């Protein structure tokens, strides 16, 4: 496919890199010279320098009336640039246009995208806010990604020293816990990643990535961590931007008796937030002020969410909050290089809005009919695909073991006629099965081809 990406920042770079590696013809439009030079030097793409909202710049990228461009992705930090680029591209005949929208008002109603002729308008703040809430709900989980419209998810749990799982082979888990619908898809041990196999023994300290239902996630936490998530009583949010607001708003709507504190240094923003949020106490101050944090009960906080515009500030505030007694700290970062810092810093979880946006963009680029739902797990360079086995699939009617899928690809769950189960090698795939596929990023295209879901 011919794809034009407007914006060469973290999101645009990641999307262009992945799509070009998959063999697509990619052009990146970027106005900033430093970013454009990075794209030009490091990626196998065509780079056009200029403002992506200007017709003459888009013409240079191949966006002209009657063009053969399949997809335009607009993912700059400016909503107006993204929307105008999509509007111009759609009228030039581009088949599918996808826009990033930082302003939540653009995604509050589907009419904005529809009236402008934009196929997909996505706000990463919404999906990341859901991820943060899930991390607060299941306090021992260090990572989570939603599957099956929220009915299932992937959770990462650390195996406690006193867990009954220590020394158990993976092949024995189904016998020990026959009533659980759960499967380990990846294990991180001593900083190294491992694709699980039957005879592999679970060790204390393993970080296990588990696909399971939301209802069973708390039971998984008991088994892996030997403790239960307690009801949320107090959450402190630092940063009153779009993401901080979304988290506070969602917490208000889901927990009646939860104490919520939101701290921001901008007085005008605080006044606006105080008028829009009903039960959140909005405080104007410095999130790094130890006296303020102690005064607001940081040592009693079940969660501290650091969601300022600065990655470095968020990481530092999370470390400070942990030292002051916060039960769980979550830092929002937008640069991919920071995603693994929780291995070296006292931060419980790191979430990335750009990763959420890239997942949406890559889903529509790879599956233009909307047949697949993709989740990117940047921390371990892996992906989860949710797709339906079509009638024409070469895998339909065959056992999983007969597909010859390489190590690094795993069919984690199957939903068949309303029942969800963990398949085995002898499971026969059927037309209409909804499958959850885990794969290392460089193997997902092979999984898609084997299952015929592209």
| Rg result | 23 Å
Identify the CATH architecture of the largest domain.
3-Layer(aba) Sandwich
CATH class of the largest domain: Alpha Beta
CATH homologous superfamily assignment of the largest domain: NAD(P)-binding Rossmann-like Domain
Low-confidence stretches: none
Please estimate the helix content.
25-40%
Number of domains: 4
Order of adjacent strands in the largest pleated sheet: 3-2-1-4-5-6
Shape: globular
Cα distance spanning the termini:
13 Å
Biggest beta sheet attributes: 6 strands, parallel
Number of helices: 14
The share of residues in extended strands comes to: 25-35%
- In the CATH scheme, what's the topology name of the largest domain? Rossmann fold
The counted number of beta strands is 22
Report the structural category: alpha/beta
> What's the mean pLDDT score?
90
């Amino acid at each position: 496919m011919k794809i034009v990406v407007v914006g060469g920042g973290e999101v645009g770079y990641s999307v262009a890199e992945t799509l070009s590696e998959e063999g697509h013809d990619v052009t990146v439009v970027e106005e900033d010279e430093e970013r454009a030079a990075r794209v030009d030097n490091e990626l196998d793409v065509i780079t056009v320098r200029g403002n992506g909202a200007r017709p003459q710049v888009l013409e240079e990228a191949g966006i002209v009336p009657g063009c053969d461009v399949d997809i335009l992705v607009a993912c700059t930090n400016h909503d107006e640039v993204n929307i105008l680029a999509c509007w111009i591209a759609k009228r030039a005949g581009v088949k599918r246009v996808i826009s990033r929208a930082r302003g939540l008002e653009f995604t509050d109603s589907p009419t904005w995208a529809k009236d402008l002729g934009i196929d997909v308008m996505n706000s990463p703040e919404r999906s990341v806010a859901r991820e943060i809430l899930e991390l607060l709900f299941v306090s021992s989980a260090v990572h989570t990604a939603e599957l099956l419209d929220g009915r299932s998810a992937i959770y990462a749990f650390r195996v406690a020293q006193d867990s009954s799982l220590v020394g158990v082979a993976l092949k024995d888990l189904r016998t020990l816990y026959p009533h659980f619908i759960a499967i380990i898809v990846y294990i991180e041990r001593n900083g190294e990643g491992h694709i699980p196999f039957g005879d592999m023994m679970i060790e204390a300290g393993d970080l296990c990535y588990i696909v399971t239902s939301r209802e069973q996630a708390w039971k998984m936490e008991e088994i892996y961590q030997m403790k239960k998530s307690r009801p949320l009583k107090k959450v402190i949010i630092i940063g009153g931007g779009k993401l901080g607001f979304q988290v506070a708003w969602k917490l208000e709507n889901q927990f009646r008796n939860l104490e919520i504190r939101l701290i921001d240094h901008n007085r005008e923003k605080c006044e606006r937030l105080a008028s829009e949020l009903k039960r959140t106490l909005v405080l104007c101050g410095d999130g790094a002020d130890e006296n303020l944090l102690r005064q607001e009960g940081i040592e009693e906080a079940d969660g501290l969410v650091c969601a300022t515009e600065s990655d470095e500030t968020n990481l530092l505030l999370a470390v400070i909050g942990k030292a002051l007694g916060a039960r769980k700290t979550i830092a929002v970062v937008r640069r991919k290089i920071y995603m693994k810092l929780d291995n070296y810093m006292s931060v419980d979880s790191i979430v990335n809005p750009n990763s959420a946006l890239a997942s949406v963009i890559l889903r529509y680029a790879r599956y233009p009919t909307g047949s697949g739902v993709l989740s990117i797990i940047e921390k371990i360079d892996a992906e989860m695909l949710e797709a339906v086995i079509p009638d024409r699939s070469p895998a339909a009617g065959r056992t999983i073991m007969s597909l010859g899928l390489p190590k690094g690809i795993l069919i984690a769950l199957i939903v068949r006629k309303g029942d969800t189960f963990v398949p085995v090698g002898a499971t026969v795939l059927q037309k209409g099965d909804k499958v959850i596929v885990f794969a290392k990023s460089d193997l997902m295209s092979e999984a898609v081809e084997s299952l015929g879901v592209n």
